[in-house]
Design goal:
Layout: E1 4-9, H1 14-25, E2 30-37, H2 41-51, E3 55-58, H3 64-71, E4 77-80, H4 82-88, E5 96-99, H5 107-115, E6 119-122, H6 126-141, E7 146-148, H7 151-160, E8 168-175, H8 185-188, H9 193-196, H10 206-214, H11 216-229, E9 236-240, E10 246-252, E11 257-261, H12 267-275, H13 307-317, H14 321-337, H15 345-356, H16 365-382
Parallel strand pairs: 1-2, 1-5, 2-3, 3-4, 5-6, 6-7, 8-9
Antiparallel strand pairs: 8-10, 10-11
Helix pairs in contact: 2-3, 5-6, 6-11, 6-14, 10-14, 11-13, 14-15, 14-16, 15-16
Length: about 375
């Protein structure tokens, strides 16, 4: 395998830091070309000093001098601001872009990377949620691979290797159920952000952890799966699997099923995406059936956790509805984390935006950008 130069967008977050661990363990195969962060200048400086990328971008322009002064002796180019974030992915030295930004912020840099014909390791599901039709079409036009990093989509992708002539009957996305599995609405009325941030199986950033607690993360994954694997909504099932050992499954037209299994560890899907089509040797902990004598499954509770149902509704409506859901959810999660609204109010806010923001059946990129702006404005009114 030829050495690959990787640009990591969002290198100081959970996915970004784990990706750097994978790269460090495979330094003969990967080189860090670009590192970016929004606000965490201290960690970005540490990472740059260790991995020696050619370029670093700090999104918050107020932090430019701090980063530039620290990295000047190392001869590392430093840029700041959102436009720089999009520009650096076009660098001809970059072979692959790992999009690990949180939320809507990943959309425009990913578009620029695809147009520059860079393969994408996608850890930012919101890019496909917001503008799935546009992104998939651009990838086809530019002959770019979008390799999923989410554990569930990576599982589906792995199950489909060698099955390109065999149509999918359906996929089954597994969900841990989060910290509130089995709880009712009366319980959820009073839960705190501290409770919601305690995920039973995965260590993730704050936003995705809250999304997991509300099942919105699974809803976003449903929409992402539609675009990644060219599916209809009726071909996508969700099942709660508390142990998070089966990461997802594919059922084929003959009734047979494939599942991808392993211990919950995001480094494995990260490594699979940036190393594809090779499976690289690792020293990750190995799964033993004796440690998990029971694997259990149950239906998701759509009455209590309404966000998953909203996602299916958005998928069926099409147009810009998923963009509305995503923007409303980002504002709702931020408000919950700042103690401005309660846990159940997040769903109320999203539902209100779905009913009151202008629906566009065949949106352009400008429509998506305007929808995101309108939805955030409406959501702020509701807080």
């Amino acid at each position: 395998m030829q050495k690959r130069n990787i640009a990591i967008l969002g290198s100081t977050g959970s996915i970004g830091t784990q990706a750097l661990e994978v790269i460090e363990a495979n330094s003969d195969l990967f080189q860090v070309e670009v590192l970016t962060a929004q606000n965490n200048a201290g960690l970005l400086i540490e990472q740059a000093a260790k991995f020696k990328p050619n370029v670093v971008v700090i999104g918050n322009e107020a932090l430019y001098d701090q980063v530039s002064n620290a990295l000047d002796p190392l001869d590392i180019k430093v840029y700041a601001g959102q436009n720089a974030l999009g520009a650096v992915v076009e660098n001809e030295e970059v072979h692959m872009v790992l999009t690990a930004l949180v939320g809507y912020a990943g959309l425009l840099p990913t578009i620029r990377a695809i147009k520059a014909k860079k393969h994408i390791a996608l850890a930012n599901k919101e890019t496909l949620v917001v503008a799935g039709e546009l992104i998939t079409q651009l990838a086809i036009e530019n002959k770019v691979e979008i390799l999923p990093v989410d554990s569930e989509h990576s599982a589906i992708f792995q199950c489909l290797v060698g099955e390109n002539l065999n149509p999918i009957e359906k996929i089954i996305l597994t969900a841990s159920g989060g910290p509130f599995r089995g709880k009712d609405r009366a319980f959820l009325e009073t839960v705190t952000k501290e409770q919601a941030l305690k995920h039973p199986n995965w260590e993730m950033g704050a936003k995705i952890t809250i999304d997991s607690a509300s099942l919105m993360n699974k809803g976003l994954e449903v929409i992402e799966a539609k675009w990644l694997f060219d599916l209809k909504s009726e071909q996508i099932d969700v099942i709660v699997h508390p142990q998070s050992i089966i990461h997802s499954m594919v059922q084929f037209e003959d009734g047979s099923m494939k599942a991808q299994m392993g211990l919950p560890d995001m480094k494995l899907p990260i490594q699979y995406a940036i190393g594809f089509p090779q499976r690289l040797k690792s020293d990750f902990p190995r799964f033993s059936f004796m440690d998990y004598p029971k694997l259990t499954f149950e239906k998701p509770d759509l009455e209590t956790f309404r966000n998953l149902g909203f996602a299916f509704n958005a998928l069926n409506q099409g147009g810009n509805m998923a963009c509305i859901v995503n923007a409303a959810n980002e504002i709702a999660v931020d408000a919950f984390l700042k103690d401005k609204i309660g846990f159940l109010q997040m769903s109320d806010l999203i539902e209100n935006c779905m009913s009151n923001v202008s629906f566009v059946k065949k949106p352009s990129l400008d429509d998506y950008i305007e929808t995101d702006k309108q939805t955030r404005a409406k959501a702020f009114e509701l807080i």
